[in-house]
Amino acid sequence: MIEINHLTRKFNEHIAVDDLCLDIPDGSMFGFLGANGAGKTTTLKMIMGLLQPTSGFVSVDGLKVSDDPTAIKAKVGYLPDEVFLYDYLTGRQFLEFVADVYNIDSSKKEEKINSLLESFGLVEAANDYAGNYSFGMKKKLALAGIVVHEPKVLILDEPFNGLDPQATRDFKNMLKKMSDEGTTVLFSSHVLEVVEKIVTHVGIINKGKLMTCDSIKNIINKYKSLEKAFFELT
Ligand SMILES: Nc1ncnc2c1ncn2[C@@H]1O[C@H](COP(=O)(O)OP(=O)(O)OP(=O)(O)O)[C@@H](O)[C@H]1O
Ligand SMILES: [Mg+2]
User: Fold this and answer.
1) Is residue 175 part of a domain?
2) Would you give per-residue pLDDT tens digits along the chain (234 residues)?
3) How far apart are CA 152 and CA 150, in angstroms?
4) Does residue 127 lie in a domain region?
5) Residue 114: what are its φ and ψ, rounded to 5°?
6) 189 lines ligand 1 (CB under 6 A)
7) Taking a C-beta distance cutoff of 8 angstroms, is the pair 1, 24 a contact?
8) What distance in angstroms lies between residue 128's CA and the mean position of ligand 1's atoms?
9) Distance, CA of 157 to CA of 31 (rounded, Å)
10) Is the CB of 16 under 6 A from ligand 1?
11) Domain of 41?
């Protein structure tokens, strides 16, 4: 579903992503791991076409990102590491705005928004300004916003960061459900115990270079645990 081909990104002389090759299988739940500064966010931004590679390229669903960055955005839901919301819109208005951006049929819009508010536990806060939401609530609203158009692919930069245990569990289950229904999910995370429970595949990078990419089953067989794999490889 996502093919990363010899992707390199330099910032001046610093190589943030170094000749990275990765294949994210269709329908997989792919955990992208690495220490702070390893190059995860830089890679995810290049997949989204938000940052130009120094060399190499990415294809999503058979389409080269550089050829049609707009088409990619229609197929993908992207959660950046720092979420962006309009503080002066309520949760409901924000989702209405996003639904309009994606041309969601007006007959389906209200039902869709109500179901998202329900799924993300935001019914009570639906008419409050997003600017007054807590960090976790903002994150949930942003997550609801990126699935409005029912994308085939989700790219999430540290989705569990800042969520409380209940929200982590809810969101983990939600991702699993979407994955079971066929959505391909690629996410970066430092929360190894959550990653280990939900992923089908793992890629670990260190200083921009891919150290391993395998099914979680093979990783556990080889290293005993994801944590051991992480520390051995980074
Ligand atoms: N716009 C930029 N200008 C200069 N250097 C950058 C820029 N963006 C990223 N870098 C550098 O690239 C490297 C990789 O950064 P990146 O944000 O991709 O890491 P990360 O794996 O997402 O880390 P974290 O786990 O802390 O989020 C770092 O050394 C960072 O300083
Ligand atoms: Mg990052």
Assistant:
1) yes
2) 999 999 999 999 999 999 999 999 999 999 999 999 999 999 999 999 999 999 999 999 999 998 988 888 889 999 999 888 899 999 999 999 999 999 999 899 999 999 999 988 899 999 999 999 998 899 999 999 999 999 999 999 999 988 888 888 888 888 888 899 999 999 999 999 999 999 999 999 999 999 999 999 999 999 999 999 999 999
3) 7
4) no
5) -60, -40
6) no
7) yes
8) 34
9) 10
10) yes
11) 2-83+151-233
Query: Does 88 reside within a domain?
Result: no
Whose Cα sits closest to atom 29 in ligand 1? Answer: 37
| Prediction pTM value | 0.94
Instruction: Report the CATH number at residue 20.
Output: 3.40.50.300
Whether 131 is covered by a domain: the verdict is: no
- The one-character DSSP state at 41 is H
Task: Provide the domain count of the chain.
Answer: 1
Residue 80, token pair as written in the block: 């950046």
Q: Whose CA is nearest to atom 18 of ligand 1?
A: 39
On whether the CB atoms of residues 26 and 1 are closer than 8 A, the answer is: yes
